[in-house]
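Example record

One chain of 295 residues, shown exactly as stored in the release files.
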Amino acid sequence: MSTPPRFAKLVVFGVGLIGGSFALALRAAGEVGEVVGFGRRLGSLTQALELGILDRAGFNVGQEVSNADLVLIATPVGTTPEVMARIVPCLGPQTVVTDAGSTKEDVVAAARAHFGQRLGQFVPAHPIAGAENSGALAARADLYRHKQVVLTPLAESDAASVARVRAAWECCGAQVRELSPAEHDRVFAAVSHLPHLLSFALVHELARRDNRDLLFAFAASGFRDFTRIAASHPEMWRDICLANRGALLDELARYQTQLDELRDALQCADGARLETTFAVARAARRAWAEGRTDA
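Predicted structure tokens for this chain:
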């Protein structure tokens, strides 16, 4: 007799890269029975059905959520409060809700506003496994394999709910860690949100120049590597930057100080200072790439 799946029914709000890959990974692991999806566009849901991400598209939130084992909110973070408002009145006593947002303090605030006495059924999470492409076509079953997922449980989160969400991500092949919501947002402002902002800014600045065609014609691997993430979803990153704007402004100020130091070194033709900066950065980058703790 085969073992029944860990999650008999999964409901996903947002069946693009993140939500679609979550469903595919659980399906590949044999840990989900039925997958039901909700989305803003019928075309996206139809595509997800054709790709085997969904078993069916949902139309009645109350009917689908009430008997779900797990609900994943994988929409842009700006729409998370709206989704919460729709699902909370319909939650079954066994239903656990999680999200995949890149910011956490705003998500926690929304959860406190909407879940009320059911806050224990919500466990915030963030998979560190994005890509520059989006939509159901970009979803794949191995997206989370050997990638990190950060849980930011609340004091009110039920231990059983946290364990269930942790198990779901581990079934996807992810390595699960925990941070507080505030610590999460400070960390990712530095290592994710700021790099995206800088990448968007560089490409935007070049795209506005009169000789942009010439510039892009000569752009090679260095430009491609630095600007890959500028191909990311604009709406999603608009919401992330606004949601984490406090921590992001702090990081932007730190980066501006670094730029000012480099500008001063250039103006003074201070090659030694430039080389020292580059050497420290190179060593830290190599240590990080090699997984060493001295990064």
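Notes: The beta strands are 7-13, 32-38, 56-57, 70-73, 96-99, 122-123, 125-127, 148-151, 175-178.
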